[in-house]
Design brief:
Elements (H helix, E strand, L loop, with lengths): L12 H11 L38 H14 L14 H10 L3 H25 L8 H11 L10 H18 L3 H6 L16 H6 L3
């Protein structure tokens, strides 16, 4: 089975490490200039309830949002352990991320929007319809050509860079949700009545 078809959730942890640099903080609907806004600085009011678009205008059109959801679910589909990426609103996270008015996010914005256009163009070239309308096998066929930057053939090199960026954002959005943390059995941020220290097997492994 091709890489894009079998994303092992345990193996996905290595992608989380790559995503960590992209997800540390949330630091126009065309390829034109992004909205001129100033962001929220370093001290948002944590007592307020924020919704998507509270800090800056969002980017995705409804069509782009559907394409993002479809690609997210190719990367992280639902299984017996957890919902799909789109069910956990990862597309909303990606929209919020690329809409932020900071240099890094704006560079990502350009790459993501270009990549979404590529997906639809390639889908129409191969199957005469938009990416969201393809069946699972057809979607995998396109993703298999761009899912590995190391082995991608020359015609797919640029798109493979987009896929790598998109995959990192998808992983970061997914595994920072309560469901995603539960999926990898992350036990941090949970109050404990007692803590007996690391298990002996862990200390032995670390030679401590």
């Amino acid at each position: 089975m091709e890489e894009a078809q079998r994303m092992d959730r345990r193996a996905a942890i290595k992608w989380m490490l790559a995503a960590a640099s992209a997800i540390s903080l949330l630091d126009a609907r065309s390829f034109g200039a992004a909205p001129a806004v100033h962001g929220y600085g370093t001290d948002p009011n944590l007592m307020d309830v924020y919704k998507p678009g509270s800090f800056w205008p969002l980017t995705f059109t409804p069509e782009q949002h559907r394409t993002v959801a479809a690609l997210c679910d190719i990367i992280l589909p639902a299984d017996k352990k957890s919902p799909s990426a789109s069910e956990l609103k990862v597309p909303d996270f990606i929209d919020e991320w690329i809409s932020a008015p900071y240099p890094r996010q704006q560079r990502d914005r350009e790459e993501i929007l270009e990549g979404l256009s590529y997906l639809d163009a390639e889908s129409k070239k191969r199957f005469q319809k938009a990416f969201v309308l393809l069946n699972a096998q057809q979607k995998h066929q396109i993703c298999d050509d761009i899912c590995d930057q190391q082995s991608a053939r020359p015609p797919f090199l640029r798109a493979s860079g987009f896929f790598a960026k998109f995959r990192n954002l998808t992983m970061g959005g997914f595994y920072t949700t309560p469901e995603g943390m539960k999926d990898i059995q992350y036990l941090g941020n949970v109050p404990l009545t007692r803590f007996d220290g690391p298990p002996p097997e862990v200390l032995n492994h670390l030679k401590l």
